[in-house]
Amino acid sequence: MAHRGGRHFLQIPGPTNVPDRILRAMDRPTIDHRGPEFQKLGQEVLEGIKPIFGTTQPVIIYPASGTGAWEAAIVNTLTPGDKVLMFETGHFATLWRTLAQKFGIETEFVPGDWRHGVDAGVVEAKLREDRDHAIKAVMVVHNETSTGVTSRVPLVRQAIDRAGHPALLLVDTISSLGSIDYRHDEWGVDVTVAGSQKGLMLPPGLSFNAVSEKAMAASRDNRMPRSYWDWQDMLKPNQNGFFPYTPATNLLYGLREAVAMLMEEGMTNVFARHDRHAEATRRAVRAWGLEILCAEPAEYSSALTAVMVPNGHNADELRRVILDRFDMSLGAGLAKLAGKVFRIGHLGDFNDLSLAGTLAGVEMGLSVAGIPHRSGGLDAAMRYLEGNGGEVKKAAE
Amino acid sequence: MAHRGGRHFLQIPGPTNVPDRILRAMDRPTIDHRGPEFQKLGQEVLEGIKPIFGTTQPVIIYPASGTGAWEAAIVNTLTPGDKVLMFETGHFATLWRTLAQKFGIETEFVPGDWRHGVDAGVVEAKLREDRDHAIKAVMVVHNETSTGVTSRVPLVRQAIDRAGHPALLLVDTISSLGSIDYRHDEWGVDVTVAGSQKGLMLPPGLSFNAVSEKAMAASRDNRMPRSYWDWQDMLKPNQNGFFPYTPATNLLYGLREAVAMLMEEGMTNVFARHDRHAEATRRAVRAWGLEILCAEPAEYSSALTAVMVPNGHNADELRRVILDRFDMSLGAGLAKLAGKVFRIGHLGDFNDLSLAGTLAGVEMGLSVAGIPHRSGGLDAAMRYLEGNGGEVKKAAE
Amino acid sequence: MAHRGGRHFLQIPGPTNVPDRILRAMDRPTIDHRGPEFQKLGQEVLEGIKPIFGTTQPVIIYPASGTGAWEAAIVNTLTPGDKVLMFETGHFATLWRTLAQKFGIETEFVPGDWRHGVDAGVVEAKLREDRDHAIKAVMVVHNETSTGVTSRVPLVRQAIDRAGHPALLLVDTISSLGSIDYRHDEWGVDVTVAGSQKGLMLPPGLSFNAVSEKAMAASRDNRMPRSYWDWQDMLKPNQNGFFPYTPATNLLYGLREAVAMLMEEGMTNVFARHDRHAEATRRAVRAWGLEILCAEPAEYSSALTAVMVPNGHNADELRRVILDRFDMSLGAGLAKLAGKVFRIGHLGDFNDLSLAGTLAGVEMGLSVAGIPHRSGGLDAAMRYLEGNGGEVKKAAE
Amino acid sequence: MAHRGGRHFLQIPGPTNVPDRILRAMDRPTIDHRGPEFQKLGQEVLEGIKPIFGTTQPVIIYPASGTGAWEAAIVNTLTPGDKVLMFETGHFATLWRTLAQKFGIETEFVPGDWRHGVDAGVVEAKLREDRDHAIKAVMVVHNETSTGVTSRVPLVRQAIDRAGHPALLLVDTISSLGSIDYRHDEWGVDVTVAGSQKGLMLPPGLSFNAVSEKAMAASRDNRMPRSYWDWQDMLKPNQNGFFPYTPATNLLYGLREAVAMLMEEGMTNVFARHDRHAEATRRAVRAWGLEILCAEPAEYSSALTAVMVPNGHNADELRRVILDRFDMSLGAGLAKLAGKVFRIGHLGDFNDLSLAGTLAGVEMGLSVAGIPHRSGGLDAAMRYLEGNGGEVKKAAE
Questions:
Q1: Do A227 and B103 lie within an 8 Å CB cutoff?
Q2: D385 — contact with chain B (CB < 8 Å)?
């Protein structure tokens, strides 16, 4: 592409802007994946990634996209014919369900309006009904990348516990890990699915399964055919920092740097930064007079905000104008939201002035595209940001 | 690791030395995988990779290690209970068989001594016996990374044809693609499995399936559960340069550069360069008085040479000495060859002087480690290289 | 420095934000500066840089900062005791004068208020007075980096011509080249001084002298002792793409890429982009109710805007707040402007959204630092940017 | 240049192979050279570079080639008409003398045969003759890059002291610093001149003056016109980590990394490594039956070896063959040595196997070019390297 002056604003909700430190860390020769230098790298990343999941249990690292880690969570714990409880919170929840069905899983899919998260009351009710424990897993998307709606995982956990049901809890954190507070161990999650290209600030190509004791035990007995995704095959060499097949070494260099950066900033600060930018974004949206897709404030996403365009207007046309005129990529509305919403990613390696540039691009784009709105959105965001050194109370907690 | 002066010699048979041009190509911001700039990239790599396989048919690109592409070849074309014909040519053939077994495939595994390639006569005989066509696929490793023995794929094809058998031909070219002459279409291969980290000179993290019409048809009818590896899901978005899930964008930047580099040099020259370096290496080994593991000259690998150490000596101790004293990584003997052979990788981004450095490291290492040998190995290699502008007749062709 | 999330905004008026393409172009092995590959590089950059100066005459490239190129312009054309006419347009004009004095040059330094450019009427008057042509050179800073005031070089040229005076015209374009329209040949400039780290988007370390026939002739007769800066020593090897001493090869890699990028965008577009961002910035400043240091609209700089803070307030304290809270570097007031102005760089690799982020940082910083101002500055800039596809009429032309 | 497979061998005696760690360290955004982050960098490099010179006194860092640092040493300490004592040890000593002459320095240039270093006896005799101390400086090249001959600086110091002469001692270490043992303070050197692109493993573009108290005092009184090179202007801002004009920030990033790497390896080990590789090279040259240019073993260079080709043969033709066939750059014979010698650089980031590759390229090149020689050179080098863990006794110490 011919140069046009200045840096592209990549404000889709992932892949996110990869910081120079991480690109540089990856830009070095690949090493022998069976040698002592690799071993040190392997041990560092396998150990270093754990606090980011809020776990002291094993985290499996795959050379694969997040979709692969979805598949891994299923093929390690479930068998064709098993029943699971899932929730139609948006496009990615729907895709995960489709994936499960391909492996012969029977999915009870609680319908949703794509504007709300998982209803913990429904979880409890469904599990109470399931007296013979046919349901083997409750599968939840923590942060719906297609809608900017989060589901409150602790409430889901409590619902399961209240129902006294043995189902595993599988949670997709692909677009929340490293951006929104998450606690694999404390919240009693059995499998956490994640990817590299969002809050971890890496290019795509790595994905993760954090695995509880209970899930690990289930995998030992599980007869679903599998090889690439098999946890057991991973665990043994991982104990020494190695992998059963050639790992994506250069992405692991990047992961080591990403972990270092997140630890330098501190996870609490990282989460507060995301909360603050999300709140500033919502204030801009409201000032524009546009509607936030997420209908429940306690479920607002700190990683992205999906914004509805007024009836009769096309969000994709707006996105095209913004890309052409202002060199910024925004997320499209997906599936049944196509053309109706655009999504602002405000996650990953991001700061106040980049957010201001992002909101300026949206505000000017709305004008250029002729979408009815009030000005003053960025103003509202700035007033919030300037008055706020970083403390944000988040409803969900 | 603390600096010790000079560049590490990574002479394992993969991952290979990644050229600066490729590292630099990858060292740039990730882009929107749904936008127009990505589309151009996607179209370029999906088209550009084809001549390297010698095909005009689709090549599927996975964000995964080569092991994933092994699995993909199986789950797309075979069903639990299917029978396949495989050959014990070495460690990787054995691993591929194990993988197939995990998916319920019945593997007829013709025993071998790890010093010879596939015997085409046996292929023909076995297929002729199989009158009711229970064998669904013949699965062959083109270049056994564990032994430095190649199998002559055209002879296998002819054997299948002579037997008039409809079995698919699946070939692993993980350590040969881009290094040793290979022709997916001309040789009538149905699925070619490959990876990024060998002849393609990339870091690990991408793998490939080149797919014939016949294999594609088989996949349409195949009921083996699959999702991540599913060819059909890939093909549709691929037609426009896109992928069904987030691709490993930065590795694709590298792939575009790798394709450009191979085209600049010309595949014929690339193969001749590898043949020449392999011949120089074998002359060194013979001058040292050591034995080449590969027993059949027509099956010598141009990607690596496995060398046997005399009885009573340990190849791993030699490798340790060479790593410590000369900062070079060599390949270990695997499985039943552990301690008995070491493997010299001479593939990928490589030239005469790097080969000389490599052979010097081996020759000095043999002395330091006290392994009986004659000197003069590097001398023999130099005499060959200096007298030879590049023409090499290869027995196998 | 510990990671704090997001990308630093480097909005000093140079060094500017180095684009990734340039950093990557520099990130490769140094080559033999006497070999054929270097020769090609040398020829490309020596030829490619010329259109950026608007010249077909030689451009000398030094491995040095811009200060070195200032010195080079003097030691090649002037001799101790020579008289020159200079103008106190700001801090850098003053420094250049001091440098000239160190080499024994007698400088007539026309006083100024640091808010105006060179008065062409004064040039003409002074030269008319100088009947015996004691004045050997008129030395002008095109864009005063310390004030954001440009001098209109064509008017200076016309003044010299009207006076019929043979003085050389030396022009410093360190902070204008590649950002503000400039024409070495058309405007009859004899020596143009430039540096790498502003409009050329490179790191610091290269500087330039574009040299007219007349200046070259003067240098041949000039007896000022010199070696490193000597044009004659450079010219001969330059004809073949080489240099008389080891050049800064990796910066030349970057220069090749910078030239390519400017040519891709087109110099007319580059200048229009800078004009437009400068106008947007001034609209923001006026909306804030602050005063632009440059007093004459025809002399507004398109590279930077210096803004006065109200009496009783400290611009450095504002800058400190902005750096701490919003991770943006702005330029300080220099010398007699210390504490009184801050300077916003809007040059180099820059676009609308980065400008919006920059202005947001200033606007929020003014609030946090408690500097009296009206809000709405960024709003005014956005209204201008969104209504304007790129056409800007510039008063100076 | 089109890809040809493998990594270029850059075996000129500088610029040397820049390690990836240094290229990567430089590949990051330029920062504000007046801000706190730069200050830390400035302090680190200004302090960190001192032990590499063996000094606790100031080291001045210029954004310039080594030639600039030659000029700086002169213009800070000498005045037109001053007399200096220099020695024709080779091409660079001759160039430095020419440079001095351009600044009006009267150079007594003791003739030499380009095969020997400075004769300390001559130093003493010349200084004893100079009863009225007209000689202001003794100027010596530590390692003659054109010949591979070192001069023993401690002996020169002793000669000056024995003569009781107050002359300054200026030493060029451009191709020795960081490769050959050197001690600015202990050896009583007044100005040490150095560059970035040799033992410091950086790209060209930085150069250095280490300055004694006595030289600093001389500079305070010295009236030679100067500005860019002026030590006094540098010293004040340097105290806080800053520079009087824009420094070459990205090269300073590289310098910080280079210092770290040299400290990790340890200077004693760095010198021993160079000594060892030089000895191995000489053994190869002798085994080939070729003559080493340096006539005095106590003066052998550990940075490079200049090799004479037999009469009637052309070293440049040999170099061309080696570049074309083996992708290796060697140093040319310069000035009166043109065509008669080639120079093997074995300095900087280098190890045993790279040396073996280098010597293989020379040995094969000799054959291809038809230059009479015996084989066995690389063999001799390998026997030395394999038997030698690193201890080398060097005659000069």
A1: yes
A2: yes
Report phi then psi at A29, rounded to 5: -55, 140
Residue A95 near residue A69, CB atoms below 8 Å: no
C326:A264 CB<8 A:
no
Cβ distance B27 to C29 less than 8 Å, yes or no, reads: no
Q: Which residue of A has its CA nearest to C352?
A: A326
Low-confidence ranges of chain D (pLDDT < 70): 1-2, 389-397
Q: pLDDT tens digit string along D85-127?
A: 999 999 999 999 999 999 999 999 999 999 999 999 999 999 9
Q: What is the β-pairing status of strands A135-141 and A83-87?
A: parallel
Torsion, CA B363, CA B366, CA B367, CA B369, rounded to 10? 150
Read off the amino acid at residue C50: K
Which one, of B305, B364, C206, B9, lies nearest residue A31 by Cα?
B9
Q: Residues of A annotated in the binding site for substrate, as ranges? A: 343
Residues C56 and C89 placed together within one structural domain of the fold: yes
Q: Which chain B residues are closer than 8 Å to A10 by Cβ?
A: 29-32
* DSSP H helices in chain C: 20-26, 36-48, 50-53, 66-77, 91-102, 120-129, 153-163, 213-221, 231-238, 249-265, 267-288, 315-326, 352-368, 377-386
**pLDDT for residue A351 is more than 70:** yes
Give yes or no for C233 touching D (CB within 8 A). no
| Any B CB within 8 A of C37 CB | no
Q: Can you tell me which residue has the tokens 């014979």?
A: D333
CB contact under 8 A, A326 and C352: yes
CB pair distance less than 8 Å for A27 and D24: yes
* C297 phi/psi in degrees, rounded to 5: -50, -35
D37 and chain A: CB distance < 8 Å anywhere?
A: no
Residues C238 and C340 in one domain: no
Long-range contacts of C131-134 (CB under 8 A, 24+ apart): C133/C165, C133/C166, C133/C167, C134/C83
Residue D251 CA to residue D243 CA, distance in Å, equals 14
Neighbours of A2 (CB within 10 A): 9
Q: Which helix (H) or strand (E) covers residue A380, if one does?
A: helix A377-386
What is chain B's mean pLDDT, rounded? 96
Last residue of a domain, one of C244, C264, C284: C264
Residues D273 and D366 in one domain: yes
In this structure, are D139 and D247 located in the same domain? yes
User: Which of A263, A292, A317 finishes a domain?
Assistant: A263
Residue B252 shares a structural domain with residue B275 = no
Q: What is the pLDDT of residue C3?
A: 72
C328 close contact with A: CB closer than 8 A: yes
Residues 264-323 on A with a CB inside 8 Å of B are 323
Share of chain A above pLDDT 70, in %: 97
CB A271 within 8 A of CB A181: yes
CB neighbour class for D326 (10 Å; exposed up to 12, middle 13-18, buried from 19): buried
Q: For A37, which residue in chain B has the nearest alpha carbon?
A: B1
pTM for the whole structure: 0.96
Range of the domain at D58: 20-263
Per-residue pLDDT of C275-288, as tens digits, reads 999 999 999 999 99
Residues of B in contact with C20 (CB under 8 A): 28-29
CB contact under 8 A, D352 and B378: no
Distance CA B71, CA D362 (A): 48
Q: List the one residue out of B261, B229, B265, B224 whose CA is nearest residue B244.
A: B229
CA separation for the pair B211, B306 (Å, rounded):
31
Mapped onto helix, strand or coil, the DSSP state of residue D300 is strand
- Does the annotation list C343 as a binding residue? yes
State the distance between the two ends of chain A, measured CA to CA, in whole angstroms. Answer: 45
